[in-house]
Design a protein that fits this description.
One of its GO terms (molecular function) is DNA-binding transcription factor activity. This is PLP-dependent aminotransferase family protein. It comes from Elizabethkingia bruuniana. It holds the Pfam family GntR. This protein has 17 helices and 16 strands. The protein is α/β, with parallel strands linked by helices and about 500 residues long. The protein folds into three domains: about 80 residues, Arc Repressor Mutant, subunit A (Orthogonal Bundle), CATH 1.10.10; about 110 residues, Aspartate Aminotransferase, domain 1, CATH 3.90.1150.10; about 220 residues, Aspartate Aminotransferase, domain 2. Strand 5, helix 10 and strand 6 form a beta-alpha-beta unit. Helix 6 crosses helix 14. It starts with a helix and ends with a helix.
Length: about 500
């Protein structure tokens, strides 16, 4: 009974009886694959169902079902009293048929057969760990989010008949209702003077920066950022072909005198900054330097991208209004996130810009995120309208202020004398510098061995400083104590 044909079928069809996919479909899919790759040629007669069932060690009815499915899909034709024949072929040329290896058809290719551009610029810099204690760069505590309360807004919108049409059609403009209320919210809380036509709703700050980069940046354009600065945004700028120029940041924010000197020597296309609390050092940009930057932008014609990533978190005084609120010449593109203090699924990003730029941005959003989440946007709009957002922010700001005070006290208690830091006026992180250099990678590794994870994105070390950006917002008192205790012990062990 052995024949070359039977040997071929054993090679091209592999049945995994542990798979949830029906056996007859496994046969169908692999035979189609074999036809497409030229192993089973047009006009070739397939084995009879009885012989095929013996070779594959399956019931004959399973093979019959597979042949019927192949016939229905137009790959084979069954002729009474003659047999079943291949009528389609993946090859239009007479090719030499190679004997397939089992992995040719039983598994998916591990690599492409063609070349393509690869870049390490967009490698994921974020790390994960199963450690009990983790420091991050300053994110809210999801345990403070009243998810049930917020989900009720979403659920109510989903059940409304008026929402069905919105789900079925999305025009990349997003929810007009949400944009109207978000514009009012931003005008009242941040001193802006915008309408819904000045808003673009995105998924995140990173998406916002990507869209801006695609429109404004060309190969070789210079982008100025603070030193140190936000690594993820820098990667986006570099992927756009921009040249990044770093300018030092001191206790008043980015050095405007050095920016002015640079403008006199070369053309700047864009300045990216986080003036409310500079990332990562948490230093606010002084009022005088804000005025100077707006003046320089108008004089030299560069765009300012103002990332207000943590406006919602301020404690000691009234929040400093964004630079965009004082921009009269259309030089500032304002980027932020809404609902950062809510559960992750309820957050969204936004861009504020003049209408002519907004028109172009909508084109890009229509390509990369055409569908969006209009029901979520509608729910967020209702949360603004009903005051739910303000109530939550007021409540959570009180808790985060208490955590900031507690964390800075504990930081002084555990590491005082070895470090220096300033108590931030807002945000959810502390910038901590060592008085004497410490190998941060060794410190992080030692901490991880003792159940505390410090991602490499929080480590800042050069010839001028050795520092950590430590987020505290997600930690309760016992977690802060334990985390800082491990950090202290790791620091002491490196000195021995």
């Amino acid at each position: 009974m052995s024949s070359p044909d039977q040997f071929l079928y054993k090679k091209i069809i592999y049945i995994d009886k542990k798979s949830s996919r029906p056996v007859y479909l496994q046969i169908v899919h692999q035979m189609i694959n074999a036809i497409q790759r030229g192993y089973l040629m047009k006009g070739m007669k397939l084995l009879g169902t009885r012989n095929m069932s013996i070779i594959l060690e399956v019931h004959r009815k399973t093979v019959i079902a597979a042949y019927e499915e192949l016939d229905a899909q137009g790959w084979v034709e069954t002729i009474p009293n003659k047999g079943t024949f291949v009528i389609e072929s993946g090859s239009t040329k007479n090719i030499n048929i190679k004997t397939p290896k089992r992995q040719d058809l039983a598994t998916y290719p591990q690599q492409t057969g063609f070349s393509f551009r690869q870049s390490n610029l967009l490698d994921n810099p974020f790390e994960h760990s199963s450690c009990t204690y983790i420091f991050n760069d300053g994110v809210p505590d999801t345990r403070l989010s009243q998810i049930g309360n917020y989900s009720s807004f979403y659920s109510a919108n989903l059940k409304r008949k008026s929402s069905y049409k919105k789900i079925g059609y999305y025009n990349t403009e997003g929810s007009e209702y949400f944009k109207e209320h978000l514009a009012q919210y931003l005008n009242l809380s941040r001193g802006l003077h915008i309408s819904k036509n000045n808003l673009l709703i995105t998924r995140s700050t990173e998406m916002s920066i990507y869209i801006i980069s695609e429109i404004l940046l060309s190969e070789g354009d210079m982008v100025v950022v603070g030193d140190p600065s936000y690594f993820a945004v820098n990667m986006i700028f570099q992927k756009s072909g921009a040249v990044i120029k770093t300018i030092p940041v001191d206790e008043e924010g980015i050095r405007t005198d050095l920016i002015e000197e640079l403008c006199k020597k070369t053309k700047i296309r864009m300045l990216y900054l986080t003036p409310h609390h500079h990332y990562p050092t948490t230093v606010p940009l002084s009022a005088q330097r804000r005025i100077e930057l707006l003046s320089l932008a108008s004089q030299y014609g560069f765009a300012i991208v103002e990332d207000d990533y943590d406006f919602e978190f301020h404690y000691d005084n009234s929040a400093i209004l964004p630079m965009a609120s004082s921009d009269t010449d259309g030089m500032v593109i304002y980027v932020g996130s809404f609902g950062k203090s809510l559960a992750p699924g309820f957050r969204t990003g936004f861009i504020v810009a003049p209408e002519n730029l907004m028109t172009e941005m909508r084109k890009y959003l229509g390509i990369i995120d055409r569908q969006g989440d209009i029901i979520m946007e509608q729910a967020l709009g209702e949360m603004i309208a009903e005051g739910e957002i303000n109530r939550h922010l007021k409540k959570s700001a009180k808790i985060y202020k208490e955590r900031r005070d507690l964390f800075t006290n504990l930081l002084q208690e555990h590491l005082g004398g070895q470090i220096k830091f300033s108590i931030p006026s807002g945000g959810l992180a502390v910038w901590m510098e060592w008085q004497s250099p410490v190998n941060l990678f060794q410190l992080s590794a030692h901490c991880q061995q003792h159940d505390l994870f410090i991602p490499r994105t929080l480590l800042y070390q050069n010839k001028d400083f050795t520092a950590l950006r430590l987020g505290y917002g997600h930690l309760e008192e016992d977690e802060m104590n334990k985390s800082l205790q491990i950090l202290r012990q790791a620091n002491e062990s490196l000195k021995k």
